[in-house]
Each structure stands twice: as structure tokens, then as C-alpha cells.
Amino acid sequence: MPARRAVVLLSGGLDSTTALAVARAEGFDGYALSFDYGQRHDRELESARRVAAALGAKEHLVLRLDLRAIGGSALTGDIPVPKGRSHEAMGSGIPVTYVPARNTIFLSHALAWAEVLESQDIYIGVNALDYSGYPDCRPEYVEAFERMANLATKAGVEGRSRLTIHTPLIRLTKAQIVQRGAELGVDFGLTWSCYEPQPDGRACGLCDSCLLRQKGFAEAGLRDPVPVAR
After folding, report:
1. Angle between helices 14-25 and 43-54 (to 10 degrees)
2. Running DSSP on this structure, what letter comes out for residue 137?
3. d(CA 57, CA 117)
4. Residue 230 counted as domain residue
5. What CATH number corresponds to the domain at position 14?
6. How far apart are CA 151 and CA 162, in angstroms?
7. Host domain of residue 26
8. How many domains does the chain have?
9. What is the dihedral of CA 89, 93, 74, 213, to 10 degrees?
10. pTM exceeds 0.85
11. Residues in the chain, pLDDT under 70
């Protein structure tokens, strides 16, 4: 029996890396898909390449999209990245680091590649517990996209296959994600989460993504090998 193929959205961060490890553990050949979309933290793409190689991805595709032309986010425009926010503040409202429709854009490309690969499976490392309030990380969003995907593809209309979007981390805390990654042998030193890398190559330690990552490692009782400025 040939191995099953899965397209895995891979940013190079903690969550997407663990999602790729989960896909491999569940018997899939991983086809990693990353995006160079004009993000200020494009340092993550280097991590994505290293992670894809370390976790044995069959292929790693990096697509270029200029979302800076649209803007509207601190990650793609000239808007300051919030620093030092409390976990309560991070849990209320949608922050300026939200990139408009990003997961919809990414999943649409993943859907197209999955159809070409004759794959019925897409993995995405979204999380609805310890996250920054992004609307496209919620279970109801993923379920709606999956329904749409099965209406929108040739394979779905012809009844040859039914696409499933796997969200293995969606109901885990960040600490549980760290623990799951550790169980699967993830080298966290290869990953990158910081929204505003420092000139010396260290993570800032103060953006929402850094703070959530620190919280996860602390609660999991593990040391984060990625150097942090603060």
C-alpha cells in the first residue's frame, strides 16, 4: 500500500512543526507548504526549511505572496507589534498582528496542492485555547472551510474523495502542545515563533507569540532552546 499523502501548513513555528510531527506519527507522508507573504518575521522560513528536512517531509514548497500590498496587520504593514501584553489582554479582542484572511488564503493553496497530489488530508496547527484571538483559528471556521472545500474541488464534486482538515492541536493548551512535540521528538531549537526578531538573531521575548511560547514551555516544565533577548 502506498503511503498516504498529507499537505501540512508549515510556518516553522512551534504549533505547525508539531502538526507536521503528528501527521508523520499518524502514518502520512508530509508535503510541507510554507508562505513567503511579506511577513516582517520572515526568519520563520529558515526554520520551516530546517523543520521540513528534520521531520522528513517528502517535499517542501514555499509560495510567494505579497500580502504587504494589502497590509492591515502589524506583520505585513507599518504598524507596531504589541509588546508585553498580559495573557488576559491577549485573550480579549482581535490583535493588530491578525493578518486579514491569512488562514483562508493559506488553506486555499493547500487545497489546490492536495487536489493535485490526490491527497484527502490537510494538517494545520491552529489552536483555540492559548492563542492570540485570531478568528481563523476557531473550530467553527475550520469546519466551514472543510465543507466549502468538498464543494469546490473536482475530486469532491465527482465523489472520488472527501477532504479532511486535521487540527490535532486545536483544543490543546500551549503546554500540552510543547509536551506533544517533545513526545514526538521535535527539536524545538529548529522552530521560530517571534514576530519581531532582534538584529542579533534572538527572539524579542515580548511579543504575544513569544509570551505564549514562554508560557507553554514554563507550564510544561521544559526549557526553550531558542535564545531570547528579554
Report:
1. 20
2. G
3. 14
4. no
5. 3.40.50.620
6. 10
7. 4-220
8. 1
9. 50
10. yes
11. 1-2, 130-132
